[in-house]
Amino acid sequence: MSQPSPEVYERGKGMDAHNEVMREIRSRKDRTYDPHEPTRVWMDEDNTPDGVKQSLTIILNTGGCRWARAGGCTMCGYVAESVEGGSVAHEALMDQIQVCLDHEAEQLDDGETAELIKIYTSGSFLDEREVGAETRAAIGETFSDRERIVVESLPDFVEREKLEDFTSQGLETDVAIGLETATDRVRHDCVNKYFDFSDFEDACAEAGAVGAGVKAYLLMKPPFLSESEAVEDMKSSIRRCADVDHCHTVSMNPTNVQRYTMVDELYFNGGYRPPWLWSVADVLESTADVDAIVVSDPVGHGSDRGAHNCGECDDLVQKAIKDFDLRQDPTVFSQVSCECEGTWDVVIEEETSYSMPLAR
Amino acid sequence: MTDYFEVHGRDGAARLAELRLTDPVTTPALVDSVVEDAGSLWAAEQEVPEGSDDVLTVLPHRSFPAGTDERVQESFSVDSPELDAPTASVVTSETAAETGADAYILSNAQGFVGHAAAFREAIIEAKDRLPADTALYLSGVATPRNVSTLVYAGVDLFDAKLARVRGREGMYLTTESEYFLEDLEELPCTCAACQTPRSEFTRADCAEHNVNALRAELATVRRRVRDGRLRDYIEGQARHDQWLTAAFREFDQQYGYLEERTPLVRNSELAAASSDTIRRVEIQRFADRVTSRYRNRFDNPLVLVPCSATKPYSESQSHGQFHDAVQFRAHLASMTSPIGVVPSELELTYPAQHYDSVVTGRWSEDEKGFVASVLQRYLERNDYPRVVAHVPEHGYRDICERVEKEVDVPFEYTVEDHPTTTDSIANLMSTLQGELKYSKRERQHNTIAALADYQFGDGAGDQLFADVDVEMTSRYPKLQVWNGEGEQLATMVPQYGVLSFTLEGARVWSESDAPTKRVEIDNFAPHGSVLAPGVVDADDDIRTGDEVVVEGPKAFAVGRAEMFGSEMAESTRGVAVEVRHVEEK
């Protein structure tokens, strides 16, 4: 058990301020959402421990993240995609699943289904206040004919009994945990996420106990870090995650600037730039030797609000990253180059948190 | 409290100073090579560095970038350790507070550099929150084009981070623009980097050129600050970017900040070459003092004449002719853009004999409006039996006609064609027919009183010199003031047109009803100069160049202020007052 210390006190103060400010920022939006529609659904290909698979990704609208209602993470705007009033009833959630199945059927040939199902909620699928036991079991049953399922959750809610709803259906089961960084200090103070790396380790052990695995989600370049600090944080985080048993995949994703977030406030006022795609490439390349699948999916790449380079080479570098995701071959990065790599070098060398961003 | 930064010279808010490292750095300057960053506390715990006299150590920091909510800034604020070495603290303009460091870095600079109003607001707020004798450092924002305006606003330290990044982005920076390197057929520079043939010139060379250009511009700026002529430069240089022009105009509208930092007198020329000159402190201050402190003591008519290019006016050919026509039968005042109205007693007073303007005979509405408002206020404050406007058409005459409608005293016009034509001069002579001459003694006495009004406040001329039996010795422009008992009180300094007191004069001043500017010092007798740490307190309205009384338990002295009042009270380094005379108690 942790002892009270000035450090903890400071952390509490910082968290209070972050939450107060984030609540205020979030309160500026007033959109509400239909509880019978998922937030988003799409088809893709994903690299899994069993190879590259056809995937159906579902962002379930469950009423959103409880932590976000308290204030929440400084970069996360997904709470915008929640329903009014909080929770969503079982029937409504099952309606959302049906919309997703219909989407899948439309996209694929007759009789074909995705082998991999990924369910995110912008919160915790395993939190029973978001998704009740009845719904969880029903969803497990719905997808029992697939190979693998990934469900998103904070580490607190990872319990073997809940995972057994999926493993008992013969599904390879993974929990996607938004760890953001292995560095507690950065996770607490820059991201404003309350748990510790040790909680993540515990969740991995809990999942492993029932044969499930963990996919760690990392965030490259939270606010307040310079480009080089962000890169170093990711390199060490990937290594630390890969060293944890049952964490077989790391998804390392650059921050994109979402509306109604603290990051957006900084961005708007000239105090934030999303990471360079070169930084993403550098991290993937230098950690290619770890014993885990490491992937990245830069959202909004090439745009001002997403990870970007100079505008000339963004698509090329993004393509290399996607290629790396599927093949895990670091040599893909030696095949892309651009004059702006020289700019990135100077930024890495010279940008400090008191002179950032040095380039737009 | 700083041991490692010392301000040696001031030009408005700009400062020439020394970062006192083992190898001292004269600032404003780039400090890349002498800065050591102890690291960000956002990323990791950081050890308190030992520091070293060789470098400026940036203390462990939690930097708040532009846009960070103040509540977040407050809750994550860090305590800065005090090191026995040169240090810099990272703060923002919004929540800056003294930490004991020698320099302060504003981590929100990226948010306000480039935005005139926000820039003005941030700099003034930071200066207000931080000790006057510490350095202000903006990291990652300086370019050859903007750095002079940044210095003008009061920034001391810079680095070449942005110049290098821009170079690698293929942007070729100059003091007047930024170019896409690929668009340049030839390189508009001859620095070492630009010796590379155009065809072989890379982005790395471009980055090197950018740094060279930035370094050269800072050298120019330092020269300008030394000469007291940065403002003249800014009025031209800032024209190359709209936000920079807007920025110095924003500061003009924040009169108090610049006024406090602008010296009362200078020995250098003041170039009145742009429409913005009217709004600079020196011009506004002169106009303000002429219309709120100065008082005419002559009973004669007023003759308004045009200014002359030669300074002081009385040494010009045209004014020689006016003088011969007037023959001490009227009080002369010159109308001029951009100064306004210069009564003859103040023709030596800075900047009346120091400015040089661009003469085309075309007056802008701004100039007319300004001179008219000064003339109107002047005539509302001073009663004359008659006003003779011996001024040419265009501008001057328009202004007089405008003011004539607003004041009680009627204007008589005496110029045909040009003020120095035989007819005009004859008109002027005959217009004054029958007016009585004033004596040389009256003229000299009024000059001294006018200077005292201007320098020390409304009524000071009478409060200081009415009760004593004043004698004048030596010739204008070097008048000396003596009391009736053979003791000298003051001398008129012809270079700046101000009075400087003797010890006896300072005593008269100190005991008079005229507002006295006082510097209270510790228990010592100063010889030569009073250093800032010796100052216990100083009046807020003291400006650099002001005459001040220095007093402490051990001494009574008089001298000239080398910094402004609040800076004397706050500073721990530097010369506060150059003492002229001292008496030990």
Overview of the molecule:
Chain B: Belongs to the archaeosine synthase type 1 family. Chain B: One of its GO terms (molecular function) is RNA binding. Chain B: InterPro entries: Archaeosine_synthase_1, ArchSynthase1/Queuine_TRR, DUF5591, PUA, PUA-like_sf, PUA_sf, TGT-like_sf, TGT_C2. Chain B: Residues 517-584 form the PUA domain. The complex is a heterodimer of chains A (360) and B (585). By secondary structure, chain A is of the alpha/beta class. In chain A, 39% of the residues lie in helices and 16% in strands. In chain A, strands 1-2-3-4-5-6-7-8 form an 8-stranded mixed β-sheet. In chain A, helix 3 runs parallel beside helix 4, helix 8 runs parallel beside helix 10 (277-286) and helix 10 runs parallel beside helix 11. The N and C termini of chain A lie far apart (44 Å). In chain A, 53% of the residues are buried. In chain B, helix 12 (365-381) packs across helix 13 (396-404). Chain B is globular, with a radius of gyration of 27 Å. The model of chain B has no long low-confidence stretch (mean pLDDT 95).
Low-confidence segments of chain A = 1-10
| Top CATH class of chain A | Alpha Beta
Give the overall pLDDT of chain A as a whole number: 92
Q: Which class best fits the helix and strand makeup of chain A?
A: alpha/beta
Order of helices and strands of chain A: HEEHHEHEHEHHEHEHHEHH
- Major interchain interface with per-chain residue totals: A-B, 47 and 44 residues
Integer-rounded radius of gyration of chain A? 20 Å
List keywords for this structure.
heterodimer; A: 360 residues; alpha/beta; TIM Barrel; 8-stranded mixed β-sheet; 12 helices; globular; B: 585 residues; Rossmann fold; Archaeosine Trna-guanine Transglycosylase, Chain: A, domain 4; 3 domains; 6-stranded mixed β-sheet; 5-stranded parallel β-sheet; 18 helices; 29 strands; 32% helix
Describe this structure in a few short sentences:
The complex is a heterodimer of chains A (360) and B (585). Chain A is of the alpha/beta class and 360 residues long.
